[in-house]
Amino acid sequence: MNNTITHSGVIEKIGSHHVTVRIEQVSACASCKVAGHCNASDRQEKLIDVDSDRPGKYRVGEAVVIAADTRTGFRAVGLGFGLPLAILMMLIFVIKASTGSDGQAAVAGMAGLIPYYIVLYLMRKKLHRKFSFKIQP
Question: What's the predicted TM-score (pTM) here?
Answer without folding.
Answer: 0.65
